[in-house]
Amino acid sequence: MALEMMTNQGLGNLDAILTTVSGGGMASGISIAAKAINPSIKIILVEPVGKHLSECLKTGERKWPNPPQFLDTIAEGIKTQQLGQLTFPILCDLAEHDVITVNDEQMIEGMRMVAERMKLVIEASAGAVVAAAMYKLSDIVEKWPHIKNIG
Question: What secondary structure does DSSP assign to the chain, as a single string?
Answer without folding.
Answer: -HHIIIIITS-TT-SEEEEE-SSSHHHHHHHHHHHHH-TT-EEEEEEETT--HHHHHHHTS----SS--B-S-S-GGG-B-SPPTTHHHHHHHHS-SS-EEE-HHHHHHHHHHHHHHH-----HHHHHHHHHHHHSHHHHHHH-TT---B-
